Amino acid sequence: MYDCLSIFCNSQHVADFNRAGSFHVFDSKGGQPPIDIWRSLAEENIQDVLDQVCRSLGLQSPTKLPPSTPEVVVYRFIAALLGHSAFGKVNWECRNGYFDTSGMEECSINKAFNSFPEAKERSRIPLDNDLLNIPAYRFWFVKKNGKPVICLETSGAAWNNEGQSFDLSALYKKEKRIWPLVWAVASHLLP
């Protein structure tokens, strides 16, 4: 129904970041007005916007990055790659492994799995912490001009379109920086 990144806590839907730029928190008090993220970023510095988002969730703004668990490394990888390509001539996007329509039409497994056979096999293995017991939610596909070029699993595994596989956690432990990982996995895709 919406093209958004949802935040869940203990299987409860907490908030949505909508691709159109709004951030909406669902709370028991009747709700808060959405935050217009894109306009806020144009008018304020990033830390002020992060502080506003954290306050709306009832959280303290972070003073440092969270521990770099495999899942955190995957999301930092995605953010670094997409941030680097923002406003460029090439259309980059990241899509989840499960097409969730919130009941508006039939949900489905992302067809991008067909480009990454090892990830497709892993997506058949359920794990205890799979959102809604659907393994495909663990996977993300980075697309370049609509073509899937990188697959990432929140376990820290990654595959590129050249058939290479990577353990992002092991690579991160060597450098403690995200860009060496992006370069290792995606250098052939970057100008």
Helix/strand layout:
Elements: E1 4-9, E2 12-18, E3 22-25, E4 35-36, H1 37-43, H2 46-56, H3 70-85, E5 92-96, E6 98-99, E7 108-109, H4 117-122, E8 139-144, E9 147-153, E10 157-160, E11 165-167, H5 168-175, H6 179-186
Antiparallel strand pairs: 1-2, 2-3, 3-4, 5-8, 6-7, 8-9, 9-10, 10-11
Number of helices: 6
Radius of gyration: 17 Å
Order of helices and strands: EEEEHHHEEEHEEEEHH
Average pLDDT value?
Answer: 85
Largest sheet: 5 strands, antiparallel
Strand order of the largest sheet: 5-8-9-10-11
- The portion of residues forming beta strands comes to 25-35%
* Spans where pLDDT lies below 50 across 5 or more residues: none
Q: How many strands appear in the DSSP assignment? A: 11
Q: Structural class of the helices, strands and pairings?
A: alpha+beta
- Helical amount among residues, as a percent range? 25-40%
How far from one another are the termini? Answer: 34 Å
What is the approximate shape? Answer: globular
